[in-house]
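Researcher: Good morning. I'm working through a list of sequences from a screen, and I'd like to move beyond sequence-only analysis. For each chain I'm collecting a predicted structure so we can compare shapes side by side. This is the next one on the list. No need for commentary yet; just the structure.
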Amino acid sequence: MTLGLRDGEVHLVTHSPAWAEAGEAECRRLLAALSRWTSHVEHVGSTAVPGLAAKPVIDICLGVQDLLHADAMAEEMSRLGYDYPGDVGIPGERVFGREPGWRTHLVHVVVVDGPRWQAYLRFRDVLRADPLLRDEYESLKKALAASHAADRYTYTQRKTGFIQRVLGAPRSGAPGAAAPGAATAGAATPGWGPWAPSSAASPPTGPATGPRWPR
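Model: Good morning. Structure tokens for this chain:
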């Protein structure tokens, strides 16, 4: 298993069963180091969905009581190999990236049980439970990766419509739940999916640094 992707690059690889082990190992490492601030760490994103092609980057969702904890844990995260750009314009989230310039892991710090925490886990769990929906998402990602291989911001934004449809669907088995695979891709709509910045217009930038969030 090889992990890592250059900043801004989009490259999908066939799902590796080793991703689950890598995600669990990093969750354990984070829990051991950050127990003062959290007891809620989950492997999320496409590498957490068996059978789904993905960028070879492990996404972790870390739940805290207050987003200010992200600033407090920055020094400890640095010792674990993560850099931290601070608030980069993603509402309700702070992001740490491991291995600057060659991302292997991203840690998304959100309020535990808040909307973004629920969105990350729900999107993962719906795709795990619905192979047709998972395959539809993979087809969309492959098409976008082919047309936006050097533009991860646009690649991410163009997935927003699909993500919103999945998150807005009734839970499987609930009254009125759609049939498996019923969600469709469509065009991205303004707003946010679990991975999107706050504005669809342009990525947040810092002075002379280009895009500031570590995706």
